[in-house]
Amino acid sequence: MLVFNLFQDSVLGVSTRPEKWVGAKGKGIRGWIGINTAFNRTLCWAAGFAVLFPIVIIVAHLFCRFVDEPSIRLAKRIEARVFSSPDVVLVQEMKSQERVKNTRLA
Q1: Which of 57, 74, 76, 91 has its CA 20 to 30 A from that of 27?
Q2: Rg of the chain in Å (alpha carbons)
Q3: What is the pLDDT of residues 37-65, one digit of tens each?
Q4: With contact defined as beta carbons under 8 Å apart, do 92 and 36 qualify?
Q5: Would you say 16 and 24 are in contact if contact means Cβ atoms under 8 Å apart?
Q6: Is 98 exposed, middle or buried (0-12, 13-18, 19+ CB in 10 A)?
Q7: Distance in angstroms (rounded) separating the CA atoms of residues 81 and 93
């Protein structure tokens, strides 16, 4: 919702306000289409949805990729260290050290 609120005013804009701008056009989608009739409001809503929906999806994907997934991996590592037996942790560390040695040799 935060992303939508950030971009909403710049994309949708404002409609004409006769009391302030006599004969002037508004800005954004509301200024181009207008909101005088029900059809114009619906068209304005659909155009705003078409513009803002991909932006929200992209930001949600980036958040999931760079914030959510690393925090889940960190929580799993902490859980594995806290709730597993010392032998399992030792074996995991030995395997990771062997992988590092193998990548250095390759």
Answers
A1: 57
A2: 27
A3: 778 778 878 888 898 899 999 999 999 99
A4: no
A5: yes
A6: exposed
A7: 11
